[in-house]
Structures
1.
Amino acid sequence: MIAEVLPCAETPGEEAFDSAMRRMELERARITGETGDLVRKRQSLDALVAEAHEYRRRLVASGSA
């Protein structure tokens, strides 16, 4: 991405600037999407871990563990 944005610094101009801004905005949107996916995956994992802890607690309480 840096290589795509760098021409804006090397050759200032409206077109280079606009192109660099579009590229940075696309990259930001991509990262935002990935962040959302990671948050959902972490939430799923948190729920699974909580269920596993609860299952183990019930096993210990029943004397089966």
2.
Amino acid sequence: MDLVFYKTSKNPEKFSIKVTDKHLVNDMYVYYITTQDVLLKKQPYDGEIVFKYRNQSVLKTHFSLHPNCHYVHFTLHGKAYTRKLSPAGIAYLETVRAVKLVIQH
């Protein structure tokens, strides 16, 4: 899985990390993205999560970490979904972003 953070007000530059832990990849989809639909907001995305199987992209989601607007947006089998991130998903993505910013400075 590739986790990409776009250049935003909180990210001075675009960066990505590769997640190879199969359990974490599963957790990202099962525990970090809820089944609760939300209205797609006009917020710019903070990044994307690209789920892969054998080096092939199988699902690309765009995510937002804006206050009061934590969600992922993706298309699966031709249908668009916008789902709320779970508290664990928000915490994970915010931690990755914060750790990367500390390493960069």
